[in-house]
Amino acid sequence: MSYQVLARKWRPQTFEEVVGQETVTKTLQNAIKSERIAHAFLFAGIRGVGKTTTARILAKALNCQEGPTPSPCGECVSCREITEVNSIDVLEIDAASNTGVENIRELRESARYGTARDRFKIFIIDEAHMLSNAAFNALLKTLEEPPPHVKFILATTEYAKIPVTIVSRCQQYDFKPIPFLLILERLKLLSQEEGIKISEYSLRALVSVAEGSMRDAQSALDQIIAFSGKQIPDEAVRILLGVVDEKAILSLVDAVLERDARTLVEQVQELVNSGVDPRNFCRKLIHHVRNLMVCRVTGWDERLLNLPDTAKKEILKQSEQFSELDLIRFYDLLNRAENDLRWNSHPWVHLEMTLMKLIELTRLPSLEDVIAQLERGEKIGKSSPKDGSVPSGATGTLFPAAHKSPGSKDKKGSRSVGPPEAEKTKEEETKEEETKEEETKEEETKEEETVSESQVISQLLSAVQTESIRLYSSLQAASRTTLEGGKLLISFPQSEAFHQEEVLRPDHQALLSRLCAKIVGSVPEIEVQLEEPPKEQPDPKDDPRVKTFIETFPGKVIVEKENAD
Ligand SMILES: [Zn+2]
Known about the structure:
Blueprint: H1 6-9, H2 22-33, E1 40-44, H3 51-63, H4 77-83, E2 90-94, H5 101-112, E3 121-126, H6 133-144, E4 150-156, H7 164-167, E5 171-174, H8 180-194, H9 200-210, H10 214-228, H11 234-241, H12 246-257, H13 261-273, H14 278-298, H15 302-305, H16 312-321, H17 324-341, H18 347-361, H19 367-375, H20 426-467, H21 469-476, E6 480-484, E7 487-492, H22 497-504, H23 506-520, E8 525-530, H24 544-552
Parallel strand pairs: 1-4, 1-5, 2-3, 3-4, 7-8
Antiparallel strand pairs: 6-7
Bound molecules: zinc ion.
Zinc ion is lined by residues 64-66, 72-73, 75-76, 78-79.
C-alpha cells in the first residue's frame, strides 16, 4: 500500500474529533440541532487549523441520510462520498486556482438546478480571499437570494481580504491557532498508533515549529519519517528542522549573564561550525527571552511555556538573575537583529555583535533612575559590577537591579523612582485652581474668535482656488494668513520671497480685494510681508543635562522639544 500522508489519514471525521476548535464545532452542532442553519458560512483562521476539515464535516452533517444531524453517521453513501471528496452534491472549489468570474458563473448556474441526490447542494470555497472582484460580485448575487437547497461554506486564511458585502451575508466562525499541548497530545497518539518511535523532546520540537497549525506539525513529522523511517533519532529532528539545541541557548545566555565575552565568542564560533542558521538561532533566543520573562512573572507554568521539564532548573535560575527591564531591552535588541539578519551579508558577525551589546546592556542604569538622578542634580554614573565599586556621588541604592552581580536573587527587580512630591498647602492649591479657571475662560473666547477667523480664511482660499490657481498656490506657501481689525496680513518665510512677490502683483491684489469684499463685506487693507530671519537659538545639545543623558545612553537626539516650564 502506498504511503498516505498523516494529515490525510488522521483527518478528523466528526465534530468531536476536531482539535482545539470547540467553540466553532459546538456552535455548528447547536445550530443543526435547533434547525437554524445559515445558508452561508465563513470560516477564517491561519493555515492548518481545521477549516476545510470542519467544512466537510458540516457538509456531512447536512447531507447525511440520517440528517441533518450534529453527528453524521460516516457510513451512508453521502457521508462516504464527502469523506472521499467525490460527492456529486458537495463541490469543493479551490479559489487559489479558480479565481475567475467564469468559475463563479458556472457555480451559479449549477446552484440554480436542484440537487442530484442529497438534501443540499453545498459549495465549499477554499482560500476564498483569492477570488477576483468580478467573481466576488457574481457570488454576491447568489448569496443575496440563495435557492433554499444551496449552502455555501467559504474558508479563508486572510479574512481582511474578503469584501464586507460578502462577510455580512455569511455566518462567521473564527478558527484559533491550536494550543501547543493539544497538538502535542494528538501527535503522541498518532505516533503510538502508527508505531513511530520518537522522543518527547523531538515531538515538542516539531510542535513548536508548527506554531499552532496541526497540518504543519503533521507534515513535519511526515518529512522526518521520509528521512529516517519510523525510528526517529533526536539528531534527525535537529538536522531537519534546524532545531537549535536548548543547551546552546542556555550557555550563551549564561555567558551574557556572567559578562564573559570570551566564552560568548567561542560559543558563537561553535554554532557557526555546526551550520546553524543565524536567523533561526536569533528567533530561538527571542523565544528564550520571552520564556525567561514568563518565568519571572508567573513562575514555571507549563501551559504558558511550552517547554520540556528538562531545562526547568536552568531556565528558572536564569530568570531570577535578569530584571524585567533587562529582558525587555534584550527583546528589543534581538527583535531588531532578527529583522536585520535578513539583509545583512555577515549575519553571524551581526548576531555576535548583538550578543556583545546584550552584555553592555546589563551594565546600563534604567531610564527612571537617570531621570530621578537628574532631578536631584546628581552626577550619572554607570554600573561596574565586576569590581563592585559604587559610582561617585551616587548611593548604592540607585541602581538596584541593574547592578546585581551574577547569582544574586533579586526577585522583583524594581527600580527606585524620583523623590516624593513635596506636599502642597491647601491655600496654594486653591490659588492654583482659580488661576487655571481664568486661563481656561480666556482660552475659550480666544478659540471662538480663531475658529471664525480661520473659517473666513479657508473660505477665502477656496474662492481664490476657483478663480486663480496661480495665486492659490502662492498663498499656500504663506506661513501665516490672518484677518484682524480690517487688515489681511499674509506672511511668508524668507525662503518663499518669490511667492510674496506673486501675491503683491496688482492683478492678484485686486482679486484678493474683490473676494474679501464678497466674503467679509468690506475691502480690507492687505499687507504682504516677509518674516524676520529667526534668531539664533541655543543648541539644546549644549544643555549639560542633555549632554550627560547622551553620554549615559549612547544614542542621538531625534526630536527636540521645548520644555513647558
Ligand atoms: Zn451519513
